[in-house]
Amino acid sequence: MSVTAFSQLCRFIKSNYAVIHLSGIDAHFSKSNKPAAIISFDDGHYDILENAYPVLSSLKMPFNINIDTEILETGKAHDYVRVYDILNHTSIDNYYNPKYMKKPIEVNRGNPMQTEQEFTDLLTGITTAEKREITEDLALKAGAKQDDFSKMLSKEDIQWLSKQDVEFGSHSHTHSILTKIPSEQAQFELNHSKEVLEKLTEKEVNVLAYPNRIYDASIEETAKQSGYSVLLQTKDQINEFVSGQQEPKSYTRVNQYHQSLDEALAHTYGMVNKLKKVLR
User: What is the DSSP code string of 35-48?
Assistant: First the structure.
């Protein structure tokens, strides 16, 4: 999403909603019937600070960032984004790793979404260590350089943003698909990321955004045991507030990646999905 489209969307939201923190949902609806909106970012890309923060700050709009905390150790995004960075910044035309693949993935520059989906499918079904092995092998074969990878928020950036009243949540530690890893590792992913963020911000962290929006009842229970009281999904649905909802409270989110305000609003209010149903 361009900065212009993002700014226009934020102004629309501010004009029509009470913009609040996740921690302020109950307090808001206990005294107001005005619809509320929450601005939320995942992963921890530096452009949140560089491009989104100036817009949101000028409009006095609070927001939430959910961090996969391994980025603070590596300075790089999680494996899925690393793959997309490599594809976008190198001229590699195919990739094959016989250890994990039956046939090569052909890089289709005319349809990058298809290629990215093939890599997403490949990475989703394997362990965290295997994922990293493939990502590093792809980087080597493609001749990727450090500058080819997305810049991420640093520890200092997170501390500074926290002091500006930005709320932080966990996006796990390594952005592993939590349902695809052993239960002990899933528990570590949630516990460790929470500890890292609480130490950095010196604030309680009780928000979890599921990596790749994938979870099940077991992961939800693990999140509850780890001390998370707010669980974020991504289903492109607007929530209805339910008074007295038991913790952990679960909320859906609407993805925003459009290049114009009209496209963003059509997606937000379901017009795109309605049109797809009509066209079918």
Answer: -EE-EEEEETBTHI
Is residue 128 within 8 Å of 211, Cβ to Cβ? no
Rounded distance between C-alpha atoms, residue 27 and residue 50, angstroms: 31
In this structure, are residues 239 and 205 in contact, taking their beta carbons and an 8 Å threshold? no
For residue 109, count CB atoms less than 10 angstroms from its CB and return exposed for 0-12, middle for 13-18, buried for 19 or more: exposed
Predicted confidence (pLDDT) per residue in 216-236, tens digit: 999 999 999 999 999 998 887
Q: How many residues comprise the chain?
A: 280
How many domains does the chain fold into? 2
| Same domain membership, residue 239 and residue 194 | yes
State the first-to-last Cα distance of the chain, in angstroms, to the nearest integer: 28
Query: Considering the entire predicted model, what is its pTM?
Result: 0.88
Structural domain boundaries, residue 198: 3-73+150-167+182-276
In this prediction, residues 239-265 reach a mean pLDDT of 82
Q: What's 38's domain CATH number?
A: 3.20.20.370
- Residue 278 pLDDT > 50: no
